[in-house]
Amino acid sequence: MHSGTDRSIDFSTAAPVEGSLDVRWIHGEADEPSIQVHHYDPHTVLLRQSKRVNYEAPFLFLLFGNERALLLDTGATADPELFPLRATVDRLVADWLELHPREQYGLVVAHTHGHGDHVAADAQFADRPHTTVVAPEEEAVRSFFGFGDDWPAGTVDLDLGGRVLQVLGSPGHHKSSVTVHDPWTGILFTGDTVLPGRLYAFDFAAFRATLDRLVDFARTHTVTHVLGCHVEMTNRPGRDYPIGAAHQPDERPLQLTPGHLTAVRDAAESVADRRGIHRFDDFLLYNEPRPVDQLRLLGRGIAHKVRVAATPRRRRPGAAPR
Ligand SMILES: [Zn+2]
Q1: Half-sphere exposure for 10 (CA within 13 Å, toward CB)
Q2: Cβ contacts of residue 91 below 8 Å, gap of 6+?
Q3: CA of 193 to the centre of ligand 1 (A)
Q4: What is the CA(115)–ligand 1 centre distance, in A?
């Protein structure tokens, strides 16, 4: 190393590094853990909350830099007994610090957006030393990341210590949505804006402008994978699990490609004049869903629950998490 301490990790020269997405995610088996931990690489951890604890089963992300780590989202459940996120993160940080010792290592807890299934365990971190929890409201998000008056345009940096993330304002699904790019892995963390499932564009004009910015960004930066926060599609094109599904043994993988950003942008353009639900192979687009669309969605979820309750659940071979 030519700068920093001897122990400083170089997050630039080899970037983007190849990591592992060879994982079978937990998907609602009775005996699965409440949180699954998967190391993409030694400095990048992907986590999933169990559908057993909350059907939203969001993904969360922990990125280590030389001076501090970023926890992106805190899941759908506040109770540390049911969802011990703080304990899990503390253990992961301690394990990392054992290999990479540092004084006063920090933690930033921030969010892809402010919906309840992404911020629920914030309070578990309230008393954690050397920790900043960014409030999920738009004002706090803009001020913490340092967005100027050009929000949501303009890209800002978040430096974790040699690992400099880029943060893009991304309203449309939620007012305070952001997208995070990590040059070390090349991963673009898109929250609920782009994921293999139901894309709820509550402000369709803002959503389209966000997709334009994401496509532009991916054209000028290296994006290896696009990781959102949920999987709702089955492995059959165009087929999603009903909302509220607590068991998704045949869900498709989490990862999308930069090509999917273009696909979502083009899909949004093609249905811009039509409110309601539009089905595509890898996602469904909700253009400012009307009450009747929400009711249809809920009705399908309730019908599914009734069916599930009436059917004895079979264990499937090979379904155990690993
Ligand atoms: Zn969500």
Answers
A1: 8
A2: none
A3: 9
A4: 6
70 Rama class: left (phi>0) / alpha (psi -120 to 50) / beta: beta
Q: 321 and 31 in contact (C-beta within 8 Å)?
A: no
Cβ(197)–Cβ(175) below 8 Å: no
pTM of the model: 0.92
pLDDT at 312 over 80: no
Question: What letter does residue 66 receive in the DSSP assignment?
Answer: S
Residue pLDDT, tens place only, 26-84: 999 999 999 999 999 999 999 999 999 999 999 999 999 999 999 999 999 999 999 99
Q: What is the architecture, at CATH level 2, of domain 35-310?
A: 4-Layer Sandwich (3.60)
Instruction: Output the CA 16–ligand 1 centroid distance in Å.
Output: 27
SS3 316: coil
Ligand 1 center to 36 CA (angstroms): 17
Residues 196-214 have pLDDT tens digits of 999 999 999 999 999 999 9
Q: 47 is written with which tokens? A: 């986590």
Closest CA to 174 of 118, 233, 241, 121: 118
Residue 3: what pLDDT? 42
Q: Which residue in the block uniquely carries the two structure tokens 């899990």?
A: 88
The full set of domain ranges for the chain reads 35-310
